[in-house]
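Our preliminary data section would be incomplete without showing what the modeling component actually yields. Below, a chain of 167 amino acids is followed by its predicted structure, encoded as tokens that our downstream tools consume directly.
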Amino acid sequence: MAGQIQFNRDYAVWGSQVKPYEKSDDVGIIVTDFMWYEGYPYYPIGALVGAKIAGIWLGEGERPSDDVDNLDLLFKMTGSGEPLVEIILRSGGVPVYGGYVVGQTVTVTDEIVAGHRVLIGTLDGDQLRFEYNPMLEPPRYDFVGPAVRSTASTTSYRKASKIRRLR
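Predicted structure:
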């Protein structure tokens, strides 16, 4: 039993499909930030290990064809009790925390508010609208209410509003 301890198993491994810019240190720092909230853990580590990731251009206009490293990143988290998608904005060059969207599914629209595309989260069948708000500190996506031409049930509206207050 005595002897040098061998650290030969990985606890969490980024799969081969994850691109280098998605796991860079500057992205990792922001991930650390959204894993914690006001000095307390918000997600268990399993939420990050089980998170699904998507890269998409949320900026205004078309993504520059020569820009392969600055897609915005969306992390579909597990383990918070509600379906949350955390956002890291990279389209401005330096990665920054971009807020979150509540919903089992998220749809990106062509509508632009404050230089960023509007996101629609679908929560229990209700469509909820999230817009980028540069007036928040820090600037980020924010829940603004039911999607256009949609009504949200009282339950979904309350869930999204409650999470908004907690985050």
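The chain has one domain: 20-166. The mean pLDDT is 82. Preliminary results of this kind motivate Aim 1 of the renewal.
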